[in-house]
Design brief:
2 copies of one chain form a homodimer.
Chain A lengths: L1 E6 L7 H16 L3 E6 L5 H12 L5 H25 L4 E4 L6 E3 L8 E4 L2 H8 L3 E5 L2 E4 L5 E3 L4 H13 L3 E6 L20 E3 H9 L7 H10 L3 E5 L7 E4 L12 E5 L2 E10 L4 H11 L7 E5 L5 E9 L3 H15 L3 E5 L2 E7 L9 H11 L6 E5 L2 E7 L3 H11 L7
Parallel strand pairs in A: 1-2, 1-9, 2-6, 3-6, 4-7, 9-11, 10-12
Antiparallel strand pairs in A: 4-5, 7-8, 11-12, 13-18, 14-16, 14-17, 15-16, 18-20, 19-20
Helix pairs in contact in A: 1-3, 2-3, 5-7, 6-7, 8-9, 10-11
Chain lengths: ~400, ~400
């Protein structure tokens, strides 16, 4: 088999862990597999570099930021290859450029355009383990160094697995797999044996941190079999695969939460067509992703309130834009609420089980938790609630949908 | 003018120093000059990376070592460019690859083969300060990352200055310039206003650490005007230039010493032609540079002792090779002496002043310092002595040749 193994920052946090990774890699290779390893920067390194950048500059240039940050993964890739060589196995470290990862020129959040992988294929055929520096690529025209954004090493691994036609892409991390919810909040949370791409995608975009959203999208699009498992044990982890019939037997597969959103409301907007379009176009133009939107007609039917949520990190900019537009439109004002949380239930079973959303609303109501906003997809229901009820909401939902029980 | 400024590790050791470098660079640019900046890794970073490598591997692969070490200069180049941008000046950071620095494939001590510099020229014409990551390049065929060895950033600066036709190459460091000898040993040591390339080369290869030997050779070959000066003051520093008539007025320009050599003696070798050739060819084949060689005919005229010195770091390997050859030749044995030092006097004035070497030997003898080996060039005399006399020898020679006096 051809296996791509991705090791996150905590898995390569220090010399001892890098050696442990090398041992796992060599064990896999000696079982007769071809192995490509993708590594993140050592835990804490990327943050340290970002801190340095902000110490020399209040607005560090993004082009230079990419050059800076890409160095973290280069260090780990070199050290990991050395550790593998030390165990007597051939290994070669490749930078994003040497791996042939070509991206667009959007610095700090570049998109992969193509991967040649020629050099890696040749090295694999010659018996080398190929160790790739994750998170980075270069532009085709200028050879500029780019990075793929937070969690970009997951994407590197999935994209390489797809291009090389790997049989499996293993994502090694510091947890045992994907859980029905955060075990820190619900100790009875259960590790899932498998989960569909669609569910994983909804969980990731609902706040579950185990996999980066874009890498799940990519895996789904190119049908790359993924498994999320722990670097620190030999347990099998969670397979992320195509949806199958079994999966629809359960109503809900998991409960996710996200405390990093801000709710912004523009109050008393004249109720004319095109108002919402104008507001959300301005926000989109500023590259801010709006998550949920609710519009209420006011009691007199002449004005309306529009509420929406944005990532906490973008809230200052979003508020500034909203206030400008509120002035232009003659709205009554803008209110901002930072103390909210989004709680979501996800499951492909929703498609065939009716009443799942109603059961969620009822459960929250029974515990005195008010719902501020609701959004739904085919396999997800999300509610915005007061942040102080987050843990309670997660616990009661986990219980209501019987997630601790054996599958 | 087009000025290349090179800042060493202590000059960019932390955020405050990087900001100070940025200020000096911007000041130079605002005086109307085009500026290329070459930076080393932050002081201590390269050693830290080497330590990590030896923690994961007893014999780290040189290819991966280069990938690892090159990251240090990338970090500094990005941070320095950011700091310059923060001061309101355009700046762009370039890696060795982006600067077009092509080297041979001898990892960890690659030689520069050519520099295209097209991108840098364009950026300079557009008003950018160009910040180059020193010490690194890539191979032309495979795009392998290479490094130029210790002090390689000096070489990067001089080579770029040569290719771009710079008017001046400024080497910024933590000392005020080139001194008549080490001021830590002789407090009266005097900073030289100027020194010839040849003298600088002899001083550098005799143990003076202020400039890397290869970069001086390169500057001499391509006639690049160099100045060595302090990052921490505005003092003028020492110009390293073509020899002029004035320089011959003084007998000796400086005294250097080197404590990092080992003396190896192969005892009682049959005195046949070709013996020395065989020994030194084997040592050269192992890429070990032999510095001084002395051969003594033994008293009975039938056997000979050959003594030579090698860098301390290579001594274990050199001893092993010598012992092997000693066995083959039926020599009596091999002795090793680590407690030696080389003391050298350098000056273009020697060419016209006679008796300089005699004065050196006499001065050492007057202070009871025995000379074990002697080697001379047109502008240098070196003596190997017992290491414990190093400081004494440097002081008495500095005094004997009147080096503290005003020029």
């Amino acid at each position: 088999m051809l296996i791509v193994q991705k090791y996150g920052g905590t898995s390569v946090a220090d010399v001892e862990r890098i050696k442990a990774v090398a041992e796992r890699v060599v064990r896999t290779a000696r079982e007769g597999h071809k192995v490509v390893v993708v590594v993140s920067a050592m835990a804490g390194e990327t943050d340290k570099l970002i801190e340095l950048a902000y110490q020399v500059s209040s607005h560090p240039g993004e082009r230079e930021m990419d050059l800076l940050l890409s160095s973290g993964e280069r260090v780990t890739s070199a050290l990991t290859a050395m550790a593998i060589q030390e165990l007597g196995h051939k290994a070669i470290a490749l930078t994003g450029r040497q791996m042939g990862i070509i991206t667009d020129a959007v610095h700090t959040k570049a998109k992969i355009e193509k991967i040649s992988g020629e050099r890696a294929k040749k090295a694999l055929d010659e018996g080398y383990v190929v160790v790739v520096a994750g998170f980075q690529g270069i532009t085709e025209d200028d050879g500029e160094v780019t990075t793929l954004g937070r969690g970009g090493s997951d994407l590197t691994a999935v994209a390489i697995a797809s291009v090389l036609g790997a049989d499996l892409c293993e994502i090694y991390t510091d947890v045992e797999g994907v859980y029905t919810t955060d075990p820190n909040i619900v100790p009875e949370a259960r590790k899932l044996e498998k989960i569909s791409y669609e569910e994983m995608l909804e969980l990731a975009s609902s706040g579950a941190k185990v996999l980066q959203t874009r890498s799940v999208e990519f895996a789904m699009k190119y049908n790359v079999p993924l498994v999320v498992r722990s670097t620190f044990t030999d347990n099998p982890g969670t397979y992320v695969v195509k949806e199958d019939k079994d999966m629809e037997k359960v109503e809900v597969s998991g409960v996710a939460y996200d405390k990093n959103q801000t709710k912004i409301t523009i109050l008393g907007v004249p109720d004319r067509p095109g108002i919402a379009a104008k507001l959300f176009k301005s926000i989109a133009d500023a590259n801010i992703v709006v998550d949920m939107i609710v519009q209420n007609i006011s009691s007199d039917g002449k004005a309306t309130d529009i509420s929406f949520t944005v990532p906490r990190t973008d809230s200052d900019r979003a508020v500034r834009i909203t206030e400008e537009i509120a002035r232009e439109l003659g709205a009554k004002g803008v209110s901002v609420d930072d103390s909210i949380a989004k709680v979501s239930i996800v499951g492909v079973g929703m498609k065939t089980h009716s009443g799942v959303a109603a059961k969620m609303f009822e459960t929250l109501a029974n515990h005195g938790i008010n719902i501020m906003m609701i959004s739904t997809s085919e396999i997800k229901v999300s509610c915005v609630i007061d942040a102080k009820y987050t843990e309670l909401a997660v616990r009661v939902l986990h219980n209501a949908f019987d997630l601790a029980a054996e599958e």
